[in-house]
Design goal:
Shape: globular
Number of domains: 2
Strand content: 5-15%
Structural class: alpha/beta
Number of helices: 14
CATH class of the largest domain: Alpha Beta
CATH architecture of the largest domain: 3-Layer(aba) Sandwich
Radius of gyration: 21 Å
CATH superfamily of the largest domain: Periplasmic binding protein-like II
Largest sheet: 5 strands, mixed
Strand order of the largest sheet: 10-9-11-8-12
Order of helices and strands: HHEEEHEHEHEEEEHEHEHEEEHHHHHH
Distance between the termini: 19 Å
Number of strands: 14
Oligomer: single chain
Length: 338
Amino acid sequence: MAIRIMGKAGLVAAWLIWLMVMPAQAGTLAEVMRHGDIRCGVFPDDPGRSAIDENGVWHGFYVDFCRATAAALFGDPGRVQFVEVDASSRFTTLQQKRSDVVMYNSTWSMGREDRYQVAFPAIYLFDGQGLMVRKGAGIKTLADLDGKTVCVAENTTSHHNLLTLLERDQIHARVLFSNGDSFFRGHCDAYTDDRINLAVSRAHRADNPEHYLVLPGLLSREPIGPMVRNDDARWQRVIRAVIHALILADEKGITQGGVERAARQSKDEEVRNLLGVKGDLGERLGLPANWAYQAIRSVGNYSEIYQRHFGPGTPVNVPAGLNQPWSRGGLLYGPLFR
């Protein structure tokens, strides 16, 4: 049995073919292949999700998805230009073509897709909005915020959800726009955001994380996914395929350290399709045959990424819960790889 794991020479040849045929085509995928790396929008100084260390190296959950995409395209997870974005510029960098994809904690909403002319190819995080308070503050529910001050980031779904809930329940709370720093400085009584974001902020921004509590329960559902412009269906399919490849690898038990063995030994037809041993999925996507193999080898499967940045044993310390494959009781569920 021949295993089609493309070496450096094969990757170079594939890239040269792209360079020859792409000038007649348009779209983000063609542009990415021409300039030889991806421009990936991430939020700076956000340990666990995306942050740069003292040596100038980026780390985080979203960073790993940037690198997985680069590995799938070029066989090299280092072929990424990181573009710093915030709650507002995450949209404009796409519109102005300063980024090719934004890997950020952006909630997928139909209104956003229309308003900003973007697309959410997939969901890589299932979350929900919550509340963080100081222990002993006597705040146990949303209703307890009456007469108090709540911090929330502006231009986010959390901001919109908070205003809607306060109006619905006739809760008279003062809203202060902040990314959480004001809360930890004592300027507001509660801070609301997606629950994983709250855990990240508590772990990395609070002087004494043990003094703060993320209340149980959810105020909303928040499907989080990468964003791309909506003008290139092929690029959308590539981003979607990379995320679902890491999810399928997780479901099938293929790890970063075991992906080579799986490519050589697995008899599972879907695994063989995934890793490029069989079938033509790579060709149909416009990628090398071993695109998923390269992505998994570079960053691991979905759970390896999650546990590395958010899971128990990390400062964030949030169990995966819904963010597990369906076969283990989660919501992660990809298309069939055939």
